[in-house]
Amino acid sequence: MATLGTEVQTPRLAAARIGSDVGLLLAKLHAAGSALNNQALADFGLRERSFSVLTLACSGLEPTQRELADFLSLDPSQVVTLVDDLERRGLVERAQGKQDRRAKIIVSTAEGRKMHTKARTALDAAEKEHLAALDEGEQGQLRALLRKALWGLGA
Which helix (H) or strand (E) covers residue 130, if one does? Predict the structure, then answer.
């Protein structure tokens, strides 16, 4: 999606049938959003995937590495690498699970929560820029539809 100021330019090839394929549209929206997200997170030494792990560690839900891998659609070895990096930086730590003592949960540190708050502000601004062609109601509707398509959730 090319933009001139706030005006959105539709690419010529969008007129082809593939220009309406949900898979292509989601892939293109994700690719453009990831680029903006990574740019917004660069000042914090984070990328989209590491930010996602940090966000879930800050959620209070105490996810295991397996849950992180499943939820983020990543290979478990990728999650180990992400957690290792965040742990080295003092942003998260592995702790003993409360439900299953053999499982390690990933929790944020105080420093991780501070970093997350700052990075979240930058990411929210990037998302606002990325979805500028949609009004607030449409943005909420998009979120609701994506959550419903993924998990059957209404809101």
Answer: helix 110-130
Structure tokens at 23: 């898979």
CA angle 127, 105, 91 (to 5 degrees): 55
Model confidence band, residue 3 (pLDDT cutoffs 50, 70, 90): very low
* CA 128/CA 67 separation, integer angstroms: 29
Closest CA to 1 of 38, 45, 40, 33: 33
Q: What is the pTM of this model?
A: 0.86
Residue with tokens 């690419």: 11
SS3 36: helix
CB 103 within 8 A of CB 6: no
